[in-house]
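dumping this here before i forget
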Amino acid sequence: MRIGLIGLGRIGAFHATTLAGLEHVEELVVTDPVSAAVDAVIGRIGKARAVADPAALLADGLDGVVIAAATAAHADLIRAAVAQGVPALCEKPIAGTLADALAVEAAVAESDVPVQIGYPRRFDPAFVAARDAVRSGALGRITTVRSTTLDPAPPPAAYLAGSGGVFRDCSVHDFDAVRWVTGQEVVEVYATGAVDPDAPHEMYAAHGDHSTVSALLTLSDGTIGVVSNTRTNGRGYDVRLEVHGVKDAVAAGLDEGLPLRSTQPGISWPSGPAHEFFMDRLAEAFRIEMGVFTQVAAGEVDNPCTVADAMGTTWTAEAATLSAAEHRPVTIEEVRAASGA
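structure:
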């Protein structure tokens, strides 16, 4: 297969390595406006070839394209791929604004070209096992789901300025994991946030953003979801999910790299070293995700995360953003009605 990759920043460069490692990917066609990023990928990946821009890439007769460009470019690039008939995997979120996400949803609905949205926890073996436990009934009725994403350090201020805020950029992974594992939709959100007093103004406060947030989610069957996020977890990259039922409880992410130190005397677990970032904690999930995408592009398997599916996570992020800003519970029905959807 010949796969395209648009965007060679932090996540794009990581995807380049993952895609190149798939045996059935014969050529990787890449593009990025930063020539140094292109040169770095071409220099270390023998099967990679560069083209001038996304238009040239999409016209290159590819079997599929991975979109890892900046969030603001997602909507246009998805529509361009669909117009060209090229199956696409686009990193979350669907688009930079709700209006653009709705426009993408409408455009994709009128086409049979598959568009997969990138939520790698759906492919993490531990998260898959947690979902299987829920779906099998082994846990009984689910009472509480806890999902955590704690980043070790914030990304650059310029990235945060265009991210859409922590709920749209970071918390969405947890919102999606809660929806996917339980099979339920979020109906109401109550969110709050705090700002690191030591962070420069342009990092968070200037954009009405937060460095640490929590959200309570009410799911369609009455289950309560608890989401916790921060940009500054000094011990490492912490991604976990707990599912508590009336019969049993399970957790994903409790491995030896868990960046958490027990204060119980005599306990040496986890032994470490702590996970540093998504590149080590979710490496296997990304590899599986990219492999599945090539199967989606080839028409061999169903799309595991459609735009329509991912819109459930988008609505949750919009409700959380409004809830934190106005200090009140917000229903998904409210934000849908306000958008005219």
